[in-house]
Amino acid sequence: MLSVDDIHVHYGASVHAVQGLSLQVGEGELVSVIGQNGAGKSTVLKAVMGVVPTASGRITFDGVEVGASGFSSVKQRMSYVPESRGIFAGLTVGENLRLGAIVRKDRKLVEADIERELERFPVLRRYWDRGASLLSGGEQQQLAIARALMLRPRLLVLDEPTLGLAPIVVDLIFDVVEQLRAEGMTILLVEQNAVRALEVADRSYVVQAPGRVLGEGTATELAAQPDVVDHLGFTP
Length: 236
Ligand code: ATP
Hints:
The chain is 35% helix and 25% strand. The protein has nine helices and ten strands.
């Protein structure tokens, strides 16, 4: 479904952040990307979403090349929750949530989906009329994910959704990710919490600076790769 093939990404003339990385995500799969800070994980997601250009290589989603003329991640129903979350601070929780569905015409289904997300994230119902800037970091992350889901995405791309959050919220976010996987959602997840990411994912890619894949596979497969175990500092 998503195919990233030998991509290179540069920032300016001096930073070659991703150097020949490939990865695949199949329909209904939950794939995680783990690796140390600065390894290039976020950059890969930005390239997938067409936010940063690739210098070479190819990224396709359902056969359509990302960045090609006419490509639109929204049209392709790819939803992206960036590390910064992208919440509109000046709007209420409800307004933020509705914005996630702004391109949809099926208004009745949108209402049903809002209800479904409020059930999934009860805190958003409680704070529906509250300014989004008043939410805690964990609440904002829940809003960001709920808003991304309002597109009815065919691919959900999450960048470090648990970064800096309290353990109880980390558990909640991982529960939601598991729930979405059980619902059949296709997910590409970048996580700094390698233990949890390996547990929750069908397959994982271990990425090493500068933007190269050190190993790929299920947790069991990765556990059998000495380079990977050495790099992670634990056996998956
Ligand atoms: P982190 O977990 O810290 O976000 P990461 O694995 O996601 O790390 P990236 O954010 O993709 O890594 O960064 C990869 C490399 O590219 C790093 O060396 C980083 O300093 C550099 N980089 C990222 N964004 C920019 C930018 N806008 N301009 C210049 N260099 C950048």
